[in-house]
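>> received
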Amino acid sequence: MHIGCPKEIKTHEYRVGLTPESASELVAHGHQVMIETGAGDGIGASDDQYRAAGATIADSAAALFAAADMVIKVKEPLAAERAMLRPGQILFTYLHLAADPDQTRDLVNSGASCVAYETVTGANGGLPLLKPMSQVAGRMAIQAGATALEKAHGGRGVLLGGVPGIAPGRVVVIGGGVVGFNAAQMAAGLGADVTVLDRSAEALERIDHLYHGRIRTLYSTRTVLAEAVAQADLVIGAVLIPGAAAPKLVNRALLATMNPGAVVVDVAIDQGGCFETSRPTTHDAPTFVEEGVVHYCVANMPGAVARSSTYALNNATLPHALALADHGLSVALTRDPHLRAGLNIHNGQVTFEAVARDLGYDYHPPEEALKTPA
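>> returned
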């Protein structure tokens, strides 16, 4: 199979879909690998390193998309990239379609087969291709929130860890999954006063067991959520419904009860965000203020630590990329129901139920859609 990996063009996105080591593995399996020139610059991987791995270098994204049977990326394709996709081509990347009707429409019209990292499932549960970036984003959320709390960045001027004689900052994490756990871990490590809210008894028990009460855990009800958010210096939105739009758990009225200069970090922004007032931002202009509260809503947070993120992501995605390349889309997805769960669009059909429901498309089960010739 001819596999192409373009340079990411989203603002301040420095990650790359394939490391030189991953390219080498694909080449060793007999596949042709093409990397767009400069694609690895953000992780310190030169064109020469890719050549040494057996890949060829494309001078442009257009040449790469035209040649590739499968395109491997990190972030969702932007409009210019979507216009280069074609029927029968495989796109393997993060998509987050439920919050992006324009992208969904273009991918449906392209005729390409789009496999989303974030909905591939694991044999033991969970979302193994989303997990490494959730770990990074959860940890970065505390760094970003701590910076936004500084007075020079519009915050309250609160030090999360406090100092002797001064109370630490109050951090509320909404959601005790991978993002929430990692955010709580980092906040506790800084010495903050940390509370995690969730409706999963298992998630709350896990945190309590590991931290022996050092991190407060609360079952999330409307009343509990409202009280916790109103008192917080920093709120992390870490709620995920796989493949679906994030629920709006904090509305404008509740946000207005927070102290002026408090901060919210919406890690769920890729799926539309869990704060009513959230809108996507970039690393160029990461924050804005609504109701006196600083919002950090960068949609590609892990891109700021591109080298760590890229290698963590490739560790998870490479086995699936090899399966798709070695066996082809239909056989690979038929053999592996967990990889099949990643199929969001195929041959003009929406094949992920939550995306179809949220955006008003007819749902076509992937098992049935794969029977339709591309």
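>> Residues 14 and 42 are 5 Å apart (CA to CA).
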